[in-house]
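Design a sequence for this backbone.
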Protein backbone atom coordinates (compact mmCIF):
# COMPACT_ATOMS: atom_id res chain seq x y z
CA UNK A 1 0.00 0.00 0.00
CA UNK A 2 1.06 3.56 -0.68
CA UNK A 3 1.00 6.00 2.24
CA UNK A 4 1.05 9.70 1.50
CA UNK A 5 1.33 12.52 3.96
CA UNK A 6 0.03 15.09 1.48
CA UNK A 7 -3.45 15.14 0.02
CA UNK A 8 -3.77 13.44 -3.36
CA UNK A 9 -4.47 16.15 -5.92
CA UNK A 10 -6.75 15.76 -8.92
CA UNK A 11 -5.25 17.17 -12.10
CA UNK A 12 -7.16 17.75 -15.33
CA UNK A 13 -5.30 18.12 -18.60
CA UNK A 14 -7.10 20.12 -21.30
CA UNK A 15 -5.64 19.58 -24.74
CA UNK A 16 -5.83 18.21 -28.24
CA UNK A 17 -6.53 14.47 -28.30
CA UNK A 18 -4.13 13.07 -30.89
CA UNK A 19 -3.06 9.59 -31.78
CA UNK A 20 0.73 9.60 -32.19
CA UNK A 21 2.24 7.64 -35.07
CA UNK A 22 6.01 7.61 -34.53
CA UNK A 23 8.72 6.41 -36.88
CA UNK A 24 12.46 6.76 -37.33
CA UNK A 25 13.40 8.21 -40.74
CA UNK A 26 16.42 9.62 -42.56
CA UNK A 27 16.78 13.41 -42.84
CA UNK A 28 16.25 13.33 -46.61
CA UNK A 29 12.74 11.91 -46.07
CA UNK A 30 11.85 15.04 -44.11
CA UNK A 31 12.99 17.38 -46.87
CA UNK A 32 11.31 15.20 -49.52
CA UNK A 33 8.02 15.71 -47.65
CA UNK A 34 8.59 19.50 -47.46
CA UNK A 35 8.57 19.47 -43.67
CA UNK A 36 10.75 21.70 -41.51
CA UNK A 37 13.05 19.59 -39.36
CA UNK A 38 12.42 20.04 -35.65
CA UNK A 39 9.11 21.86 -35.93
CA UNK A 40 5.39 21.08 -35.97
CA UNK A 41 3.45 21.55 -39.21
CA UNK A 42 -0.33 21.38 -39.47
CA UNK A 43 -1.32 19.22 -42.45
CA UNK A 44 -4.49 18.39 -44.38
CA UNK A 45 -5.98 14.90 -44.18
CA UNK A 46 -4.87 14.29 -47.80
CA UNK A 47 -1.20 14.65 -46.78
CA UNK A 48 -1.36 11.86 -44.18
CA UNK A 49 -1.09 8.92 -46.61
CA UNK A 50 1.94 10.42 -48.36
CA UNK A 51 3.78 10.75 -45.05
CA UNK A 52 2.77 7.28 -43.88
CA UNK A 53 4.07 5.73 -47.07
CA UNK A 54 7.57 6.44 -45.68
CA UNK A 55 6.83 4.74 -42.34
CA UNK A 56 7.90 1.20 -41.49
CA UNK A 57 6.47 -0.38 -38.31
CA UNK A 58 5.50 2.87 -36.61
CA UNK A 59 4.78 3.05 -32.89
CA UNK A 60 1.14 4.05 -32.29
CA UNK A 61 -0.03 5.52 -28.96
CA UNK A 62 -2.50 8.04 -27.54
CA UNK A 63 -0.75 11.35 -27.67
CA UNK A 64 -0.85 15.09 -27.80
CA UNK A 65 1.33 17.19 -25.55
CA UNK A 66 -1.06 17.50 -22.58
CA UNK A 67 -2.02 13.84 -22.79
CA UNK A 68 1.66 12.83 -22.48
CA UNK A 69 2.00 14.93 -19.32
CA UNK A 70 -1.21 13.51 -17.84
CA UNK A 71 -0.08 9.99 -18.69
CA UNK A 72 3.16 10.45 -16.77
CA UNK A 73 1.41 12.22 -13.86
CA UNK A 74 -0.72 9.15 -13.41
CA UNK A 75 2.40 7.27 -12.25
CA UNK A 76 2.68 9.68 -9.32
CA UNK A 77 0.62 9.85 -6.13
CA UNK A 78 -1.84 12.22 -7.85
CA UNK A 79 -4.88 11.40 -9.96
CA UNK A 80 -4.99 12.60 -13.54
CA UNK A 81 -7.84 13.03 -16.01
CA UNK A 82 -7.99 14.29 -19.60
CA UNK A 83 -10.40 16.62 -21.41
CA UNK A 84 -10.35 16.71 -25.21
CA UNK A 85 -12.43 15.63 -28.21
CA UNK A 86 -12.33 12.48 -30.33
CA UNK A 87 -14.45 10.88 -33.05
CA UNK A 88 -16.03 7.46 -32.50
CA UNK A 89 -13.65 6.10 -35.17
CA UNK A 90 -10.88 3.54 -34.79
CA UNK A 91 -8.30 6.12 -33.63
CA UNK A 92 -10.77 7.66 -31.19
CA UNK A 93 -11.43 4.28 -29.61
CA UNK A 94 -7.70 3.52 -29.52
CA UNK A 95 -7.10 6.85 -27.79
CA UNK A 96 -9.66 6.21 -25.03
CA UNK A 97 -8.60 2.57 -24.53
CA UNK A 98 -4.99 3.69 -24.17
CA UNK A 99 -6.01 6.11 -21.41
CA UNK A 100 -8.20 3.54 -19.66
CA UNK A 101 -5.32 1.06 -19.68
CA UNK A 102 -3.37 3.65 -17.68
CA UNK A 103 -6.33 4.30 -15.33
CA UNK A 104 -6.80 7.81 -16.66
CA UNK A 105 -10.35 9.15 -16.69
CA UNK A 106 -11.43 10.54 -20.05
CA UNK A 107 -13.66 13.53 -19.24
CA UNK A 108 -13.83 14.78 -22.79
CA UNK A 109 -16.27 14.63 -25.68
CA UNK A 110 -16.90 11.73 -28.08
CA UNK A 111 -18.78 12.69 -31.24
CA UNK A 112 -19.69 11.06 -34.51
CA UNK A 113 -18.48 13.59 -37.02
CA UNK A 114 -17.11 13.93 -40.56
CA UNK A 115 -13.77 14.93 -39.05
CA UNK A 116 -11.52 12.05 -37.96
CA UNK A 117 -9.79 11.81 -34.59
CA UNK A 118 -6.62 13.90 -34.76
CA UNK A 119 -3.25 12.31 -35.43
CA UNK A 120 0.32 13.45 -35.13
CA UNK A 121 2.90 11.85 -37.42
CA UNK A 122 6.27 12.09 -35.71
CA UNK A 123 9.38 11.65 -37.84
CA UNK A 124 12.44 10.98 -35.72
CA UNK A 125 15.82 11.82 -37.30
CA UNK A 126 19.02 9.85 -36.68
CA UNK A 127 20.14 12.62 -34.26
CA UNK A 128 16.96 12.20 -32.17
CA UNK A 129 15.35 15.46 -33.37
CA UNK A 130 11.62 15.16 -33.93
CA UNK A 131 9.60 16.66 -36.78
CA UNK A 132 5.83 16.63 -36.44
CA UNK A 133 3.10 16.67 -39.07
CA UNK A 134 -0.24 17.04 -37.34
CA UNK A 135 -3.80 16.72 -38.55
CA UNK A 136 -5.94 18.10 -35.72
CA UNK A 137 -9.16 16.61 -37.09
CA UNK A 138 -12.09 16.77 -34.68
CA UNK A 139 -9.75 18.14 -32.00
CA UNK A 140 -10.19 21.58 -33.60
CA UNK A 141 -13.91 21.40 -32.77
CA UNK A 142 -13.54 21.32 -28.97
CA UNK A 143 -16.52 23.59 -28.28
CA UNK A 144 -16.87 25.97 -25.31
CA UNK A 145 -20.56 25.02 -24.94
CA UNK A 146 -19.54 21.39 -24.28
CA UNK A 147 -17.52 22.39 -21.22
CA UNK A 148 -19.55 22.55 -18.00
CA UNK A 149 -18.62 23.39 -14.42
CA UNK A 150 -19.30 19.72 -13.69
CA UNK A 151 -16.29 18.72 -15.81
CA UNK A 152 -14.12 20.74 -13.42
CA UNK A 153 -15.79 19.66 -10.17
CA UNK A 154 -13.31 18.34 -7.60
CA UNK A 155 -10.28 19.31 -9.71
CA UNK A 156 -7.28 20.87 -7.90
CA UNK A 157 -5.12 21.83 -10.87
CA UNK A 158 -5.75 22.32 -14.60
CA UNK A 159 -2.89 21.95 -17.10
CA UNK A 160 -3.45 23.42 -20.60
CA UNK A 161 -1.55 23.83 -23.88
CA UNK A 162 -1.08 26.88 -26.12
CA UNK A 163 -1.59 24.73 -29.24
CA UNK A 164 -5.32 25.18 -28.53
CA UNK A 165 -4.91 28.83 -29.49
CA UNK A 166 -4.52 27.81 -33.16
CA UNK A 167 -8.25 27.21 -33.73
CA UNK A 168 -11.05 29.59 -32.91
CA UNK A 169 -13.33 27.14 -31.06
CA UNK A 170 -10.53 25.59 -29.00
CA UNK A 171 -9.29 29.08 -28.12
CA UNK A 172 -12.77 30.01 -26.85
CA UNK A 173 -12.84 26.75 -24.87
CA UNK A 174 -9.48 27.55 -23.26
CA UNK A 175 -10.73 31.01 -22.30
CA UNK A 176 -13.82 29.42 -20.78
CA UNK A 177 -11.67 26.94 -18.81
CA UNK A 178 -9.66 29.91 -17.54
CA UNK A 179 -12.76 31.84 -16.47
CA UNK A 180 -14.46 28.87 -14.79
CA UNK A 181 -11.23 27.83 -13.03
CA UNK A 182 -10.85 31.36 -11.71
CA UNK A 183 -14.39 31.45 -10.27
CA UNK A 184 -13.92 27.95 -8.80
CA UNK A 185 -10.51 28.91 -7.40
CA UNK A 186 -8.65 26.13 -9.25
CA UNK A 187 -4.93 26.62 -9.87
CA UNK A 188 -3.93 26.56 -13.56
CA UNK A 189 -0.81 26.03 -15.62
CA UNK A 190 -0.17 26.51 -19.34
CA UNK A 191 2.53 25.11 -21.60
CA UNK A 192 3.74 27.52 -24.31
CA UNK A 193 3.87 24.45 -26.60
CA UNK A 194 5.96 25.68 -29.55
CA UNK A 195 7.94 28.85 -30.49
CA UNK A 196 5.95 29.30 -33.72
CA UNK A 197 2.71 29.00 -31.76
CA UNK A 198 3.93 31.73 -29.38
CA UNK A 199 4.94 33.87 -32.35
CA UNK A 200 1.47 33.53 -33.94
CA UNK A 201 -0.47 34.46 -30.81
CA UNK A 202 1.93 36.24 -28.49
CA UNK A 203 -0.21 39.23 -27.46
CA UNK A 204 -3.36 37.21 -26.90
CA UNK A 205 -1.51 34.48 -25.01
CA UNK A 206 0.15 37.09 -22.81
CA UNK A 207 -3.25 38.59 -21.99
CA UNK A 208 -4.71 35.14 -21.25
CA UNK A 209 -1.78 34.24 -18.96
CA UNK A 210 -1.99 37.56 -17.10
CA UNK A 211 -5.70 37.01 -16.48
CA UNK A 212 -6.05 33.26 -15.91
CA UNK A 213 -2.76 31.35 -15.53
CA UNK A 214 -0.71 30.75 -12.36
CA UNK A 215 2.22 28.76 -13.73
CA UNK A 216 3.79 28.76 -17.21
CA UNK A 217 5.87 25.90 -18.69
CA UNK A 218 8.20 26.67 -21.58
CA UNK A 219 11.54 25.85 -23.14
CA UNK A 220 14.19 28.51 -23.82
CA UNK A 221 13.14 28.98 -27.48
CA UNK A 222 9.52 29.58 -26.50
CA UNK A 223 10.65 31.86 -23.68
CA UNK A 224 12.79 33.96 -26.06
CA UNK A 225 9.83 34.34 -28.41
CA UNK A 226 7.48 35.24 -25.55
CA UNK A 227 9.89 37.71 -23.92
CA UNK A 228 11.05 39.05 -27.33
CA UNK A 229 14.60 38.67 -26.05
CA UNK A 230 17.67 36.75 -27.14
CA UNK A 231 19.76 36.21 -24.01
CA UNK A 232 19.13 34.27 -20.82
CA UNK A 233 19.69 37.46 -18.78
CA UNK A 234 17.03 39.39 -20.72
CA UNK A 235 14.55 36.51 -20.69
CA UNK A 236 15.06 36.13 -16.94
CA UNK A 237 14.61 39.88 -16.34
CA UNK A 238 11.41 39.86 -18.41
CA UNK A 239 9.92 36.95 -16.45
CA UNK A 240 10.96 38.40 -13.09
CA UNK A 241 8.87 41.46 -13.76
CA UNK A 242 6.07 39.45 -15.42
CA UNK A 243 4.80 38.25 -12.05
CA UNK A 244 3.82 34.67 -12.93
CA UNK A 245 5.55 31.44 -11.90
CA UNK A 246 7.71 30.21 -14.79
CA UNK A 247 9.22 26.73 -15.13
CA UNK A 248 11.64 26.81 -18.07
CA UNK A 249 13.80 24.09 -19.58
CA UNK A 250 17.03 24.97 -21.36
CA UNK A 251 18.20 21.65 -22.86
CA UNK A 252 21.68 20.70 -21.63
CA UNK A 253 21.74 23.68 -19.24
CA UNK A 254 18.99 22.17 -17.15
CA UNK A 255 15.90 23.94 -15.88
CA UNK A 256 14.98 27.23 -14.24
CA UNK A 257 12.16 28.48 -12.05
CA UNK A 258 11.49 32.21 -12.06
CA UNK A 259 8.96 34.03 -9.90
CA UNK A 260 9.51 37.63 -8.88
CA UNK A 261 12.92 37.80 -7.18
CA UNK A 262 13.21 34.03 -6.97
CA UNK A 263 15.38 32.38 -9.61
CA UNK A 264 16.20 28.70 -9.06
CA UNK A 265 18.29 26.46 -11.33
CA UNK A 266 18.85 22.73 -11.49
CA UNK A 267 21.49 21.34 -13.89
CA UNK A 268 20.50 18.64 -16.36
CA UNK A 269 21.84 15.13 -16.03
CA UNK A 270 24.49 14.02 -18.50
CA UNK A 271 22.83 11.79 -21.09
CA UNK A 272 25.16 9.54 -23.10
CA UNK A 273 22.83 8.87 -25.98
CA UNK A 274 19.77 10.86 -27.00
CA UNK A 275 17.43 8.64 -29.02
CA UNK A 276 14.37 10.86 -29.46
CA UNK A 277 13.54 14.23 -27.89
CA UNK A 278 9.75 13.73 -28.32
CA UNK A 279 7.96 14.37 -25.05
CA UNK A 280 10.92 15.86 -23.16
CA UNK A 281 8.98 18.99 -22.23
CA UNK A 282 5.79 17.03 -21.53
CA UNK A 283 7.57 14.73 -19.09
CA UNK A 284 9.45 17.63 -17.51
CA UNK A 285 6.07 19.24 -16.76
CA UNK A 286 4.81 15.98 -15.22
CA UNK A 287 7.85 15.58 -12.98
CA UNK A 288 7.71 19.22 -11.92
CA UNK A 289 3.96 19.19 -11.22
CA UNK A 290 4.21 15.95 -9.24
CA UNK A 291 6.59 17.52 -6.70
CA UNK A 292 5.07 21.01 -6.87
CA UNK A 293 1.57 19.72 -6.10
CA UNK A 294 2.99 17.57 -3.29
CA UNK A 295 4.27 20.80 -1.66
CA UNK A 296 7.92 19.85 -2.20
CA UNK A 297 10.59 22.52 -2.76
CA UNK A 298 11.09 24.17 -6.15
CA UNK A 299 14.54 22.56 -6.38
CA UNK A 300 12.96 19.13 -5.89
CA UNK A 301 10.34 19.96 -8.54
CA UNK A 302 12.99 21.07 -11.06
CA UNK A 303 15.19 18.04 -10.34
CA UNK A 304 12.27 15.65 -10.79
CA UNK A 305 11.29 17.42 -14.04
CA UNK A 306 14.85 17.05 -15.34
CA UNK A 307 14.94 13.39 -14.33
CA UNK A 308 11.73 12.56 -16.22
CA UNK A 309 12.85 14.47 -19.31
CA UNK A 310 16.25 12.77 -19.18
CA UNK A 311 14.61 9.38 -19.02
CA UNK A 312 12.23 9.84 -21.95
CA UNK A 313 14.85 11.13 -24.42
CA UNK A 314 16.79 7.87 -24.12
CA UNK A 315 14.01 5.92 -25.88
CA UNK A 316 11.65 6.17 -28.84
CA UNK A 317 8.33 7.87 -28.21
CA UNK A 318 6.92 10.45 -25.76
CA UNK A 319 6.18 8.10 -22.86
CA UNK A 320 8.58 6.68 -20.32
CA UNK A 321 8.37 2.95 -20.81
CA UNK A 322 7.53 0.96 -17.70
CA UNK A 323 7.57 -2.81 -17.80
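Sequence:
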Amino acid sequence: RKYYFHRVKKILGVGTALVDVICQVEDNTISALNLTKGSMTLIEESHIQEIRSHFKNPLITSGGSVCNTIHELNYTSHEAAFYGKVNEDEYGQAFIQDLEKANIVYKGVIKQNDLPTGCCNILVSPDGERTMATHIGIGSQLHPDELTEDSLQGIDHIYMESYLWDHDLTKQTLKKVGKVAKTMNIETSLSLSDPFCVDRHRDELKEFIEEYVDLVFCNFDEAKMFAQSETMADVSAFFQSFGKKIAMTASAEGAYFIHGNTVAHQPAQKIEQVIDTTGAGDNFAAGFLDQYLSDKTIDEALAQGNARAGEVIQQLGPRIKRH
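The chain has a mean pLDDT of 93.
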